[in-house]
């Protein structure tokens, strides 16, 4: 029987208060590592758990921590990626609003492991409630000695600061986030050097997602074996799935990594709206290639979705039913990427602008023969040719829509109208 | 605290003053409602950074407004999850009842209407942000009730000069 841990306080009254968090065993993991473990032992524990980053890329967290040089003449930084801009995704907001101490404890344990004394939580500026609750939680944690100088009587000093974003999706890309934290336009940096070697202020830096950090105290308390026992061995652990779109019970669900997508949508989220049937599902935020209904028997984990031609991404699951035009949805997705392109590199900046114009024309019934081939040519020009993954995400999404729902695009062009209007 | 004091307090969190430009702009915008040129220059002067660094940030991030917005900035999400829950109908309704199109401000400067990219609250789509608050599971009746509450709040809050009040406060 699966027991949710990340969402255990979500529906508890005052779940965002320190007293609630402590009553549920909160901050015992921090006390335990300070008392019983060296930083290297904590890194090893996270490596053994095989925790993979929950921000989208799925990189092994312990390995990322292990890249931080042990001896450095510069301070080390921990950055929490709480920018959460991927359409369809809202998991980090709910953790920060309703159980912010879970994140703070994760930050403290993680900072101890990598040798950081300062963490910046980069939160999107729209999340005002989350920002206020996290601010209050940081103050509470300071008062009780979980943060500050000599945490819980140890020689570990640690401060957490909130840095508010201001409405740019690209800040979710880790090097763009660092640029933004340094007070510049958020544009991605060329890698290498990777942040673990030269990140914030050219210092060794680890960047982890909110959900990733929230997993860490549970791994400390329950052990790596417990974590690896949930879901597939290659991407284990509890996972937060965001369900939205044309489904009966949109919401945030904590279930094992690897749960079949069909089970997630039909059993947990209640299936399609009355009288409708599911046509397609975007499994991991709009960067993740769309999956047609017949492909829903796929496990929701990094490797299974990659093998199926999509990706877990942020696990922002968007359900689309048979009343909806896939050309319209695809156009809106590419409009999003075009709007959010930071403008640094030409394939993304110009290619997406061009793709949006073609897609809008097709949706309006003004498509021309050759338009679909032109879109495919644009995808080829964008994919793999951009500084960061924004262009790749857009190209993958467009390619998948053209592959799985080509008949809808063709109908628009041939009938010179949208058949859904 | 004065704006200068708030900015200086925020700047103390960073080893480099340039990092404090975004927090400073958010503080300044809350104070002034938007960020005209003289405010941007004041921020640069308080932090002791190049003015162009402040300008380039104020014009890159969508939450910074260099032009005035109405007392209530209605920011309707029209990204995929909200679109699938008929946010387009809500936009048409808002445009009709306010007598403006998206991007515009009502002549009484009470409402500015915008569409925005994902607000990260897709579980309660369709969603609209007004000032600091999210309003979800919206339909036309809830939109109308919300507009009535905002108009009433404006009446109570002002009595004097609505246009002088910062947005969303």
Automatic annotation (TrEMBL), chain A:
PROSITE patterns found in the cross-reference section: COMPLEX1_51K_1 (PS00644), COMPLEX1_51K_2 (PS00645)
Cofactor(s) this protein requires: [4Fe-4S] cluster; FMN
Gene Ontology molecular function: 4 iron, 4 sulfur cluster binding; FMN binding; metal ion binding; NAD binding; NADH dehydrogenase (ubiquinone) activity; oxidoreductase activity; quinone binding
SUPFAM superfamilies listed in its UniProt record: Nqo1 FMN-binding domain-like, Nqo1 middle domain-like, Nqo1C-terminal domain-like
Swiss-Prot/TrEMBL catalytic activity: a quinone + NADH + 5 H(+)(in) = a quinol + NAD(+) + 4 H(+)(out)
Residue ranges crossing the lipid bilayer per the database entry: none
Domain of life, source organism: Bacteria
Official protein name in the record: NADH-quinone oxidoreductase subunit F
Organism expressing this protein natively: Rhizobium sullae (Rhizobium hedysari)
Lineage: Bacteria, Pseudomonadati, Pseudomonadota, Alphaproteobacteria, Hyphomicrobiales
Automatic annotation (TrEMBL), chain B:
Taxonomy, superkingdom: Bacteria
Record's keyword terms, sorted: 2Fe-2S, Iron, Iron-sulfur, Metal-binding, Oxidoreductase, Plasmid
Cofactor(s) annotated in UniProt: [2Fe-2S] cluster
Gene Ontology MF, one: NADH dehydrogenase (quinone) (non-electrogenic) activity
Keyword check for Iron-sulfur: yes
Keyword Oxidoreductase: yes
Protein name: NADH-quinone oxidoreductase subunit NuoE
Source organism (scientific name): Rhizobium sullae (Rhizobium hedysari)
Gene that specifies this protein: nuoE
């Amino acid at each position: 029987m699966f027991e949710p841990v990340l969402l255990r306080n979500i529906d508890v009254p005052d779940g965002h208060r320190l007293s609630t968090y402590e009553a549920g065993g909160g901050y015992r993991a921090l006390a335990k590592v300070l008392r019983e473990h060296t930083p290297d032992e904590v890194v090893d524990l996270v490596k053994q758990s095989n925790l993979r980053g929950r921000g989208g890329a799925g990189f092994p967290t312990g390995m990322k921590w292990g890249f931080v040089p042990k001896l450095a003449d510069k301070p080390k930084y921990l950055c929490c990626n709480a920018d959460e801009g991927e359409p369809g995704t809202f998991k980090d907001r709910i953790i920060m609003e309703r159980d912010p101490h879970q994140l703070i404890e994760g930050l403290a344990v993680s900072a101890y492991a990598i040798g950081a004394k300062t963490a910046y939580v980069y939160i999107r500026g729209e999340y005002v409630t989350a920002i206020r609750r996290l601010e209050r939680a940081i103050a509470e944690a300071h008062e009780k000695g979980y943060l500050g100088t000599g945490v819980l009587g140890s020689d570990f000093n640690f401060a957490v600061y909130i840095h508010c974003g201001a409405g740019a999706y690209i800040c979710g890309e880790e090097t763009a986030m660092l640029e933004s934290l340094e007070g510049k336009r958020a544009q991605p940096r060329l890698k290498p050097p990777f942040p673990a070697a030269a990140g914030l202020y050219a210092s060794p830096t680890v960047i982890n997602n909110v959900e990733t950090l929230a997993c860490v105290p549970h791994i400390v308390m329950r052990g790596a074996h417990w974590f690896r026992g949930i879901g597939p061995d290659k991407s284990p652990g509890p996972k937060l799935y965001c369900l939205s779109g044309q489904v009966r019970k949109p919401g945030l669900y904590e279930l094992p990594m690897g749960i079949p997508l069909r089970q997630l949508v039909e059993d947990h989220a209640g299936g399609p709206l009355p009288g409708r049937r599911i046509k397609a599902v975007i499994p991991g935020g709009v960067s993740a290639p769309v999956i047609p209904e017949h492909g829903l028997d796929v496990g929701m984990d990094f490797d299974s979705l990659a093998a199926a031609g999509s990706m877990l991404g942020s696990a922002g699951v968007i359900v689309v039913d048979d009343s909806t035009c896939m050309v319209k949805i695809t156009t809106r997705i590419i409009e999003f990427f075009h709007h959010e392109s930071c403008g640094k590199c030409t394939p993304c900046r110009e290619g997406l602008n061009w793709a949006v114009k073609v897609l809008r024309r097709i949706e309006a019934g003004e498509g021309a023969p050759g338009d679909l081939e032109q879109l495919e040519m644009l995808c080829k020009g964008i994919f793999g040719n951009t500084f960061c993954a924004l262009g790749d995400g857009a190209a993958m999404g467009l390619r998948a829509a053209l592959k799985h729902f080509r008949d809808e695009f063709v109908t628009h062009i041939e009938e010179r109208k949208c058949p859904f209007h | 605290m004065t704006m200068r004091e708030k900015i200086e307090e925020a700047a103390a969190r960073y080893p480099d003053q340039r990092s404090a430009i975004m927090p400073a702009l958010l503080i300044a915008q809350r104070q002034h409602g938007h960020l005209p040129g003289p405010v941007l220059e004041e921020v640069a002067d308080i932090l002791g950074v190049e003015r162009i660094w402040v300008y380039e940030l104020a014009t890159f991030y969508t939450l910074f407004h260099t032009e005035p917005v109405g007392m209530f900035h209605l920011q309707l999400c029209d990204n995929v999850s909200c679109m699938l829950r008929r946010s387009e109908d809500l936009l048409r309704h808002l445009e009709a009842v306010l007598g403006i199109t998206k991007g515009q401000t009502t002549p009484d400067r009470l409402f500015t209407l915008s569409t925005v990219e994902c607000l990260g609250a897709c579980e309660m789509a369709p969603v609209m942000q007004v000032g600091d608050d999210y309003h979800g599971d919206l339909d036309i009746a809830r939109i109308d009730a919300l507009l009535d509450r905002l108009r009433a709040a404006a009446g109570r809050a002002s009595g004097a000069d609505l246009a002088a009040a910062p947005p969303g406060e």
